[in-house]
Design goal:
The chain is mainly alpha-helical and 179 residues long. The protein has one domain. It has 8 helices and 2 strands. The protein binds zinc ion. The site of zinc ion (ZN) has 4 residues, from helix 4 and helix 6.
């Protein structure tokens, strides 16, 4: 009997996708940059451990610079841990859509910082991450933009962020759907 060959996403591949997404949203990013001097950072985390449901990215206003960090090892672990995919092309699509969601979520945070959000205000809004209105706003913003771009990608993302997993039984159906 042949063993099933599951595919894995890798940090190097995710890094390339982040570069593509950065180009896609460059104009939007430049608009924010007019309000604040801006530096784009892709932080790489060297601790290569499997830890799902941890921080995927973060953004900060620091020393007059707006920064986004992508924790690519966390994202890699999250995707590989949750999904059992044999179709590599499909896994690439999944990771790209997921990264786009993370990027747009963080871009909304940057906009919130431009509009006067501070760490103190953020913490005062809610003790729990899930209930924080700034997080809800960032998620809604990201989902809206993805939906405007593609209803199918939006559906796939909704499935993912609600805990849905991809496997050998559903991967082809989703793959055809999102094209
Ligand atoms: Zn957030």
């Amino acid at each position: 009997m042949a063993a099933i060959l599951y595919q894995k996403v890798e940090v190097s591949g995710l890094e390339q996708q982040v570069v593509l997404l950065k180009q896609k949203y460059l104009q939007y990013f430049e608009e924010i940059a007019q309000v604040y001097p801006l530096k784009w950072n892709i932080e790489k985390d060297d601790t290569n451990y499997l830890k799902p449901n941890t921080t995927m990215a973060s953004s900060k206003l620091e020393n007059d610079e707006l920064k986004i960090w992508f924790f690519l090892h966390h994202i890699e672990a999250e995707l590989n841990y949750k999904h059992s995919i044999t179709n590599y092309t499909f896994f690439e699509k999944v990771s790209l859509i997921y990264l786009e969601f993370i990027l747009l979520h963080e871009l909304k945070h940057l906009q919130q910082f431009c509009d006067g959000l501070t760490t103190e205000k953020y913490k005062a809004a809610s003790n729990k991450y899930e209930d924080n209105p700034y997080e809800k706003e960032a998620n809604e913003f990201a989902l809206e933009l993805i939906k405007a771009d593609s209803e199918d990608n939006y559906e796939l993302l909704q499935y993912m962020i609600n805990g849905g997993k991809f496997n050998i039984y559903n991967q082809n159906e989703w793959n055809e759907k999102i094209n």
